[in-house]
Amino acid sequence: MDELIKRLAAASEGSRGLDAAIEIDIEGVSQSECNQYLAAIERHPKPNPWDCFDPCCPHYTTSIDAALTLLPEGWKITHAFWDAGATATFCLTKKERVKGEDTNRYSGGISSTPALALCIACLKARKEAQAIEAEDA
Predict the structure, then answer these.
(1) For position 51, what pLDDT does the model report?
(2) C-alpha–C-alpha distance, residues 109 and 91, integer Å
(3) pTM score, two decimals?
């Protein structure tokens, strides 16, 4: 997941290739399925205007709504900022009780677009959640 987060942070805009990489990493879609899908996009870059459902993967990196589906359970957006197209920032928190004490977990993402920043923050939160699960196991 670290490599994916680095790729997202380095991107200046979202792309279907990045969407597919997220789908592979998060949803377990196979690389061959995504490669077939990406090849179809290259052959037909302009989708049918009546086709509003994309069966392969959501537009995570270009849609706030799609990026929100990456938000792990229990996490909340506590800060969102977009500087007129220059920089977007999202901060996420999760309150939980650990060993009898209240604690807050934090995650954040900064990028050139709001959707990319939210993807980064959500993937970092997912990574944090996986680390906590591994500790508890």
Answers:
(1) 44
(2) 7
(3) 0.80
